Amino acid sequence: SKVLNRQASVAPETEALIWQVAAALDYRANIAARTLRKSASYLIGYSWTPQPPDRANPILDKFLTSIVEAAEAAGYHLLLFPSHNVIDQTQIYRNLVHSSRVDGFIVTGTNYDDSRIPLLQELNFPFVAFGRANPEWCFAYVDVDGRAGIGAATEHLIEQGHQRIGLLAWPEGSRVGTARQNGYFEAMTRAGLAVDPSWIIRGSGDFETGVRCTNQLLQLPQAQRPTALVAVDDNLATGALHAAQQANLAVGKEFGVTGFDDTPGIQHLTPPLTSVRQPIWQVGQMIVKLLIQLIQGKSPENPQINLAPRLIVRQSSLRG
User: Fold this and answer.
1) d(C-alpha 157, C-alpha 26), whole Å
2) Residue 147: closest CA among 175, 111, 120
3) How many Å apart are CA 74 and CA 140, to the nearest integer?
4) What span, in angstroms and rounded, lies between the C-alpha atoms of 140 and 213?
5) Which residue in 13, 31, 15 sits closest to 23, CA to CA?
6) Which of 62, 96, 239, 266 has the fewest CB atoms within 10 Å, counting from its CB?
């Protein structure tokens, strides 16, 4: 039993024989019995906000595939429960904890004052978040440095000779959005470039908003109008690329555009889109590894991980 549950170290010959016999007998572990004996469900709770049926999210798909693979390798499975834009999910989490349905949670979509985090800390229940929350809160998380990513994209446009650079940002109140826009402001400040408030346009992260916001920027007087823009996600950037082309601007040579996420397919746009690539697969693997350690009562050596993204430069931002 200990060998089959990978809890004991025996001679290689003995282990091989045990697995051979188990295969010959078509042995399968009795999960229900194991659950009762160990008071464990071997399930990890994961909630997300579903996208509209006509809007794919390949980044979410990659993250989900990563955590499923990592969880299964550790003998766990995922219990998925969509949030459907529920503002306060704490009762859902509380019910799952008290009913012993899950052994831990992967918490995503974190924001400032996220009510799920203090609840799980109060219940002393294992969880790892994809992203941070309030600076004074201490909990296990894996995050991607969006500020550094947008900073790198802004610096790249400055290196291309742009001085008037606009920003397509999300609405205020988003922790992730704030981090990314801070990267833009910091890069502009380091370069000694002033930021005109009219260059900052906020809106939801979709193609239509990218078109509308870019058209607004392009209507500014020519001496004030940005010659490039940084978008905090690829949907906004794709809309910006389309709007610039509709205005008869050569994207790249005359008007630089960068995005964030490096969404599959943007390399096939005309021109291909420069974007910030998040290590999404690595994030998923690390989150599950941390969570399993917490479930097992261990103290991770580094429970707070901030990964660096990478700027992928393509023709949409190159002047030459």
Assistant:
1) 60
2) 175
3) 19
4) 37
5) 15
6) 62
**One-letter identity of residue 153:** A
Tell me the two tokens of residue 160. Answer: 């291309």
**H/E stretch holding 117:** helix 116-122
The candidate with the shortest Cα–Cα distance to 182, out of 220, 141, 230, 227, is 230
168, 229 Cβ separation under 8 angstroms: yes
Q: How does pLDDT run along the chain (320 residues), one tens digit per residue?
A: 667 766 667 787 887 888 788 788 777 655 444 544 456 899 999 988 777 777 778 899 999 999 999 999 999 999 998 876 666 788 899 999 999 999 999 999 999 999 999 999 999 999 999 999 999 999 999 999 999 999 999 999 999 999 999 999 999 999 999 999 999 999 999 999 999 999 999 999 999 999 999 999 999 999 999 999 999 999 999 999 999 999 999 999 999 999 999 999 999 999 999 999 999 999 999 999 999 999 999 999 999 999 999 999 999 999 97
